[in-house]
Amino acid sequence: RMSDPATPPRATGSCLCGAISYRVDGPLRDVTVCHCSVCRRLHGAAAAYAACAREHLTVVDPDGNLVAGAR
pLDDT tens for residues 13-50? Predict the structure, then answer.
């Protein structure tokens, strides 16, 4: 999906090393706070997440580093 460069994204971000980035060009859904043991172990505390509709998300992965479901 091509986004309009004249309209700033609603949100942007990347993984810690910067190899994969994303932008959201539509509304974000409500923030969810997860207290499960996996999220607490991964983040050191409860973790907050937001979501968007798939059609508003653009993932940039120029080197093919993204692996779905990797653990």
Answer: 998 888 999 999 999 988 899 999 998 998 899 999 88
Structure tokens at 58: 């653009």
Q: Specify the pTM.
A: 0.64
Q: Within 10 A of 48 (CB to CB), how many other CB atoms are there? A: 11
The alpha carbon torsion through 42, 69, 32, 14 (nearest 10 deg) reads 70
Our CA angle for 3, 20, 66, nearest 5°, is 110
pLDDT of residue 55: 94
The 3-state secondary structure of the chain reads: CCCCCCCCCCEEEECCCCCCEEEECCCECCCEEECCHHHHHHHCCCEEECCECHHHEEEECCCCCCCCCCC
| Rounded Cα–Cα distance for residues 8 and 3 (Å) | 9
